[in-house]
Specification:
Chain A is an all-alpha fold. Chain A contains twelve helices and one strand. In chain A, helix 6 packs antiparallel against helix 8 (about 120-145), helix 7 (about 105-115) crosses helix 8 (about 120-145) and helix 10 (about 185-195) packs antiparallel against helix 11 (about 205-210). The chains are: A mainly alpha, B mainly alpha.
Chain lengths: ~260, ~300
Amino acid sequence: MAKLTLRERFKQGAAGSGDSLRGSKFASSIFRPGSPFRKGYSDSPRNRSYVVMNNVLYHLHPVKVKRHGVRLSYTLCLGGMSFFLFIVLTITGIWLMFYFRPTEMAYADIQALQTSVAFGSLVRNMHRWGAHLMVLVVFLHMSRVFYHGAYKAPREFNWVIGVILLFLTLFLSFTGYLLPWDQLAIWAVTVGGNMASYTPVFGAQIKFGLFAGLEATTATLLRFYVLHVLFFPFIIVIFMAIHFWRVRKDGGISGPL
Amino acid sequence: MVDIPEHLLLRSAEARAKALGISVEQALAEMKGESNPTVVAEEPEVVEIAIPEPVEAEAPAPVETPAAEETPAPAKEEAPAPAKAETPAPAKEEAPAPAKAETPAPAKAPAEAKTDTPEEVDFAPEVKVTQRLLTVVKAKPIQKASGEPVDKVNTWPHLMLPEFISLMAMMAFLILLSAILNAPLLEEANPNITPNPAKAPWYFLGLQEALSYWDPQIAGVMIPLVIGLIGFAAIPYIDRNPENHPSKRKYAIMMFTFFLAGAGTLTIIGVLFRGPGWNWTYPWIDGIWFDDLLDWIYFE
Ligand code: HEM
């Protein structure tokens, strides 16, 4: 076959090699009509719609979006980036859970992870820097939304959801901070807990509930661990689902300015 | 009657002109009622035959379909209708189908004595089309759409490809960063040894810095809770200005920028300029007192 340009290849979908496999009953049971992975995909307006509509993707994206909304210079993909980072953090985080016990062994586990587990350091680094990056990116996303006035009607409530997401992101990051169980972790969290204890009236109770005691102990570690790997991810996924759904229901991306 | 859009009118005028063999201007004038309609034949529906007598076997046969081969009757491509309409043709004669047709079969007309394929599907080879635009019914939607139509593109590929590329770029950045920069791990936690200074995670350091100025009751609660949660969430309900162009919401932008600048300054001070006892230091003189950055410093 003659050499194809990238564009021509795209127009043919993934067509070409592996046609017999991709045309099999098994493959077509996986890829619904319109999927670029199906045999005989061709680039047509109808198939472009099917790629989204006949797919689980339809839960995230509409078939068509405003032309100006796909310009990278408008959203800077910051919301999408927050979401991607969350996914990367989930994957690396689950991996880290294989090697980590939220007990007196926590510190030793992290050391062992770094020294004797293949790619242990890399994955831990990705999880940590990714978490910092996510806080930053969510914050930048919020700023971009503000500067575009994208919180105005009918998007007021999605901004409120967004603020909740920001706080959930901070809580996720903060609860994760304690887990390595080193001097940095325990004292940063102690400082944070002390700030919470300045809350009038309930201050002491809040700190006691958070720390499972008066100060950071392994009971605190367990508590933060459960909040970090289960509770906050669970809650944030729910709010993200509402957030994305509202983006669509509020008429897609705001603007243009 | 509804006003007919000009382009529709023109299109049907062209069709009419072609069918009747008159000029487009003439047809247009007729349709607008400015001149009398051209009267065509008495029977506009009649199928006119425009082929030579089938007996003349010598006539050229440009089309060679399997069926036509058996038939001595040659098929001939026909000229446009209006011209032929004048030529008197043998009555009831059937015309073989136009050039491309696979079935040179007779039309509705009963005469098929000369054709060998009477069972073939038939259609009128040449009908003098005379169409007239009576009215244009404006399409009315069942539902009333409230918004104006917007310029849209397909999500695939116009949105999903950039998303995918962003994802790849971010992954590349993260993996690269993680390959060259190690996450900090200090000595094991020891509740009896308090580091000095003890600092919160960086995103709380602006807050910690603020705490050092004010009464903790105020700073520790008012700032995160009131400003952070309630204040931030309430922004859309406070700012009722519907404009979203920056030039029309200068006040809101000014306030937010002040907030960002303030939070940023406090955070930077907290991270870089606070040493033991939360006293002021210069990172380039006393070093960085922020553990998360320690490994970074060791790199040099
Ligand atoms: C975990 C955190 C978050 C995720 C994953 C997320 C995700 C997204 C995504 C994917 C979009 C689509 C447009 C874009 O990419 O910019 C979006 C839009 C939006 N987000 Fe977020 N977001 C988060 C946090 C926030 C925060 C903190 C706020 C504000 C306080 C916020 C307010 C909004 C608003 C108002 C829109 C609509 C913007 C428009 O129509 O132009 N989000 N978000």
